[in-house]
Every structure is written in C-alpha cells, then in structure tokens.
Amino acid sequence: MSKTGSKKRKIDLVVISDIHLGTYGCQASELLNYLRSIKPKKVILNGDIIDIWQFKKSYWPKEHMQVIKHIIKWITDGVEVYYITGNHDEMLRRFVNFKINSFKIVNKVVLKLDDKTAWFFHGDVFDVTMQHSKWLAKLGSNGYDLLILINSLVNKISSFFGKGKISLSKKIKNSVKSAVKHINNFEKTAIDIAVENNFDYVVCGHIHHPKMETFQSLNKEVTYLNSGDWVENLTALEYHKSKWTIYKYDEDDFKSLNKEHDEHEGILEKSNKEIFNELLMDFNLIRPL
Questions:
Q1: Is 14:111 a contact under the CB 8 Å cutoff?
Q2: Cβ distance 255 to 234 under 8 Å?
Q3: Is 235 exposed, middle or buried (0-12, 13-18, 19+ CB in 10 A)?
Q4: How far apart are CA 90 and CA 107, in angstroms?
Q5: pLDDT tens-digit profile of 110-169?
Q6: Is there a contact between 77 and 102 (Cβ–Cβ < 8 Å)?
Q7: CA-to-CA distance for 25 and 89, rounded, in angstroms?
Q8: Judging by DSSP bridges, how do beta strands 38-46 and 80-84 pair with one another?
Q9: Which residues of the chain have pLDDT under 70?
Q10: CA-based diameter of the chain, in Å?
Q11: What's the CA gap between 252 and 111, in Å, rounded?
C-alpha cells in the first residue's frame, strides 16, 4: 500500500464492520486515521459498529465520539451510508428501513457493482449460539472483552521492550480447531446461499476474519469477502474501478499525520461534550426526506 498523503484517496465503495465502539478493544484512533484518509462515494457499515452489549457510560473516549462525528459528516456531505445491523447493535433492528437523506438502517443490502450483484449482510444469522443461546454468546463476549484488556497490557509491556504488537485473541482463534471449523462453516454457508440467489459477491463481517476468495459452486463463480474488524485485524474492504481489495491498517503510514490532524481539528483541547455538541450541529444540517 502506498504511503498516505494529505490528499484523500477516492474510493467507489468502502465496507467497514465490527468496530465495537464503546469497548476497550476498539481501535478508534487508528480507524479515525483511516476514515480521514479516504473519500468514498458509498459506505457500508456492516454491523457491530456500536457495541451495545458492552456499552458503559463510564467508557466512551473522545476518539469514539470523533468516529461517529466523521460518519455524520459524510452523511451531511451526501455520501450514501448504509448501516447494516449486527448482533452487538441488534437494538437498531427495530429501526430498520429508517432513512434520512443519504443514510439508511437495514438488515442487508443488495447492490449492483458494474455488471455484477453484491449481497451485503453482517453474518450473525449463521451463528447457532446467537439463534439458540444468546446468553452464551454474551458470556463469550464478556470473556473476549477481558481478553482484549489483558492483550492491551501485554502490548504495553511488549512496546516497553521494543517489541511489536501481538493479538492474543487472534492467535487463539487461529489455533483452536473448533474456531477454525466455525469460520470454514460460516464461509461455506454464505457461499452456498449466494450461489442459490445468483449473487456474484457475498460480503460479510461478524467473525473478525478478513478474507477475499473466489469459489466455483454449481458452475457459478462467487467471490466471498469479509471486512474483518477494528479490534484485532484493523481491516476494511475497498471497491474501486471494478476491483476489490482488503485494506490493512499500517501505523507507519500515519505517524507524521497524527499530530497534524489532531491539532488541525483541535481534538487535543476538546472535551467529549464539545465534540458531541459539534456532532449535534452536524445533525442539524440533515433534513428528513
């Protein structure tokens, strides 16, 4: 990937999922760097953007608020934004089909991309624990959040000794056979349904496992894509000039820009309340259709 400059990269479509705003594991500062570096025509927020399961009033850093503010700014600028609901923000499913200007809350999206059809959805519908044992899924989520906290401490120690970051949760998922099998089953199910419905692309989130691979099934070619997450992998999907790519965050691309952006927007001096008031001002620019 080329170094990020002051000029924003133009993208036809960006897909971001599993941000988990409101949790300790959310890499909001890194995400904010990425959002500032692109100029998309369409945005798909593919579920688990705000983690309502883990939300605590006592933990909502200004970087998390700034991510919301940046998305609102896109909407006021007329960028088409779809918010696809996930399991961690399932409360928003009661507002499905809510639309205001270029923003819409949905459970799934089907779009024409050039001469092909793309099906976007979060993916929790395939999760058996979500369908039959939601309490177990929430228990696992609490354990995952604790693991992220431990991981954060480990990375601070690692950084102190001049070592790179590691992801404990990622290593565990990639080594436990049941987790690997779950990912494989998830992908196969998504592909099979895409074939049955004659979709060319099937685009998911949910399993925090970025991937792009084309499969042949029943004489039909289907490309499976997963946008990954902004907790472990720091990835997104980009579609531009008829081509899909997986974006992977690299902090070296932004080292020289971090301070410049913060000083330009005055974030270092602003409180959460001030950022929220600015967000409300942006919202006032949005008018119902």
A1: no
A2: no
A3: buried
A4: 10
A5: 999 999 999 999 998 876 444 444 433 444 445 556 556 666 665 666 566 666 666 655
A6: no
A7: 16
A8: parallel
A9: 1-6, 127-181, 256-289
A10: 59
A11: 34
